[in-house]
Amino acid sequence: MRQRKIKVRKYCAEQSPHLKFVVNYREAGKRKRSFFETKAAAESFVAFKNAELKRNGVEGAEFPTALRVMAQECKEALTAYGKTIKDATEFFIAHLKASAKSCTAVQLVKELVAAKEHDGASARHVSDLRSRLNIFANKFDGQPVATITSREIDDWLRSLPVSPVTRNHYRRLIVLAFNFAVKRGYATDNPADKTDKAKEPSGDVGILSVSEAARLLECATPEVLPYIALGLFAGLRRAEIQRLDWAEVDFGSGLIKVKAEKSKTAQKRFVTIQPNLKEWLLPVRKHRGRIAAENFEFRKQLDDARAAAGITEWPDNALRHSFASYHLAHFKNAAATAMECGHHDSRITYRHYRELVTPKEAERFWNIRPATKNNVVQLGATLR
User: From CA 80, how far away is CA 23, in angstroms rounded?
Assistant: First the structure.
C-alpha cells in the first residue's frame, strides 16, 4: 500500500472559532481528525504521525499502539508452548462456543443414561452408570460441564471414602461421560482423562479352602444352597445368579445358559454343569422361577450359613474366585476356565489364578458332593 503523507489543513467553523487547523489520518482502519489552535501544534502532531508511518508502514500506523503491545506480549508467552495467537484465538472461541452450548452435569448424566438404554446396554451397566454418576453430578450441580477442570475432578475422586479399585471405577465412568460430552459438543476436551489413577493393591485373590466350601454347603438352607453351589462350581457372578431362572439350567444338555442381558459383559455364554454341581442342584431344582432372591431374608440366610460354617473372614467375591482357582488347577486349561468365567482374555485368568491351589486340593474340591448318610458332606475317595 502506497504511503500518503499526512498534512496540516486549515480549518474554520463558526461553532469552534478557536480551532484553526485540522489533521486527517487513519487509525485502526478508521478515519480520524484532530483539531489544533496553532499551526505549530498541528505540524508537531503531523511530524509524529508521518514518522510513525515511515517506521511501521500504513498497516502499523493504523494498528493501535496498545493493541500492538498486547499482541507482542501474547506472542512471546505463546511461543514458549509452540503456539500462535491464532491457535489461542481458535481454542478460546471453541471453548466459548462449547460453554454457551454446554449443559449441567446432571443433564449430561440423564442424556448419557438414556443413550445407553437405547443402545441396548445391560440393565446392570445402566444402573451402575446412573447410581455412580449421579453422585458426581450432584457434586457439580449447576456447573456447566465445559468449565469442570481436571483438578476439580481429581480432588473429588480423592475425597471419596472408597477403596482404590472403586475410585478407579468411578474415574472410568466419568471418562466415559466426558467422552459423551465432547461428542455432543458440550465440552472441547475430556478433563477426566488427565486425572490420576489410584494405585490398586496387588495381593493374592482370596478363596475358600476345600473344607470351608464343604462346610458352607452343609450349613446352607435349601433357599440359598443353589446360590452357593452355582457360585462355587459354575463360577457365576453374584448378579448373574440373581438374574438366573431355573429354566436356564438345562440338566439334559449339562449346560447353564447365561443370557447377554443377564451377563456383566453383555455377551451370552454357556457354563458347564459339573457332576458334583448337578448332584447339589437336583434335590432343590424347580422348573422355572428365580434361583436367588434379592431381599434381606435371603442375605441373612447367607450370613447365617457362613457363620455356621465357621468362616470368620470372607474373601472378596469368594465363591467365583474359588471356582476359577480350583477349575484352572484341576483342568489345567486357562482358555477353558476363561470361557466358563466369561473372561475376554485367558491371560487374565492365568495371571490371577495360577498356582493358588494345588492339583490335589483341586481334585478334592471337585469331589465335594451332597451327603448320602448321616448328613455328612462327602469329599470323595481322595479324603478316605
Answer: 42
Closest by CA to 154, choosing from 174, 181, 179, is 174
CA distance 361 to 327: 11
> What's the chain's Rg over C-alpha atoms?
37
Beta-sheet strand order (sheet of 249-250): 249-250, 255-258, 269-272
CA angle 131, 294, 274 (to 5 degrees): 110
Q: What is the per-residue DSSP string for 223-254? A: TTHHHHHHHHHH---HHHHHH-BGGGEETTTT
273: phi then psi, degrees, rounded to nearest 5 = -85, 100
What is 210-383's CATH topology?
hpI Integrase; Chain A (1.10.443)
In the chain, domain spans: 8-63, 105-194, 210-383
> What sections of the chain are H helices per DSSP?
39-62, 65-79, 85-101, 105-118, 123-139, 150-159, 164-183, 210-219, 225-234, 238-243, 275-281, 296-308, 318-331, 334-341, 346-353, 359-365
Q: What one-letter code names the amino acid at 95?
A: H
Within this chain, domains 105-194 and 210-383 share the same CATH topology: no
CA 35 to chain centre: 66
CB neighbours of 375 closer than 8 A, spacing ≥ 6?
Answer: 218
Q: Please give the Cα distance from 318 to 298 (Å, whole number).
A: 18
What architecture is domain 105-194?
Answer: Orthogonal Bundle (1.10)
Distance CA(310)–CA(329), nearest Å, equals: 25
pLDDT of the chain, 384 residues: tens digit per residue: 455 788 889 999 888 889 999 999 887 667 889 999 999 988 888 888 888 777 765 545 455 666 666 777 787 888 888 888 788 777 776 666 655 556 888 999 999 999 999 998 877 788 889 989 999 999 998 788 888 999 999 999 999 988 888 899 999 999 999 999 999 888 888 999 999 999 876 656 788 999 999 999 999 999 999 999 999 999 999 889 989 999 999 999 999 999 888 777 778 899 999 999 999 999 999 989 999 887 888 889 999 999 999 998 888 788 999 999 999 999 988 888 888 988 877 676 666 666 578 999 999 999 999 986 544 466 554 433
